Amino acid sequence: MTMANSRMTAYERREQLISVGRKLFAERDVETLSVEEIASAAKVSKPIIYEHFGGKEGLYAVVVDRELQTLSEALNDFFAHPPMGERHTMERGVMAFLTYVEEHNEGFHVLLRDSPSTDPTGSLNTLLMTVSVRVEKMLEESFKRAKLPTKGAPYYAHMIVGLTVFSAEMWADNTRISKEELAAYIVNMAWFGMRGIDAHPQLKYEGKAAAARREKASHEAAKQLERERKRLIKEARSQGKSDEEIDKLIAQQAQHFKETHGDAFHDGGDTDNTFHDDNTAVSASKGSSEIRGTDADAEAAADSTSGLSQDAETTGDASAYDVLDDAIDPEVAEAFKNLE
Predict the structure, then answer these.
(1) Model pTM?
(2) What domains can be seen in the chain, in order of their start residue?
């Protein structure tokens, strides 16, 4: 034991042990550390550890509690004085968290390792749940002002908090970029993700609803191709074209249609360019002479008002003509355009 250590007051000794413990607990789990190792790092005897904290578990609990308090104070200050604009609020919130990580790197690592068994309420996870609830309230207010549904606010709040925390965790281990640069990355994804948010989101490729939309789009696209093909055949015949010429025109039409509306058809569809509905079937490879249905049927189908584009306008479902499928929801764009 050094002379300097022997002259410490009880308060100074306690603070010294907390500092040493924070460094050790940031690198190793409490279960793998021994009291002997802590005492050796602090240059004190084992009884000193027991005298101040009752053992390594007591020291660990104090370290975790202090770090949670420090982080909580930083975030409470942000929530108590948020900026007026949504973008500014997001930037300041992210910066508040990253500033804690920057200034208390060891403490942040302790919290990341923390798996409390005696007091599960005193953990980083519990604090982040509380933060998520407060972010949720802020999102609800923004959504209401923008006349958007608030049902997804709790989930969006957890996404924003999770994005920030996991990005900070990676950065804490390797600070190759500045705090401001990381904050810009986080805000870039979160802010523009929120600006492009769909008021009524749905999966495009996975799930039952998406499969049903693809099925409908495929059926409607097939009907459209059938109408266009019958019209083509009728016009070609009126011009006196041969069956071979008509077959070639049909094949070209089918290829062009698949290239421009391919997403509307099932994956792994027919390779012989055959499409069918309940009443007719056309195969380019078999020639126009095998088309079932009369010219009157073709004309009626061509003039039908139940076409694909009208279905898309009235139902809002995905279709072969759904060219705005990936566009930003106009309600959301209008609501967010002045927030920056």
Answers:
(1) 0.65
(2) 66-195 (1.10.357.10), 209-315 (no CATH)
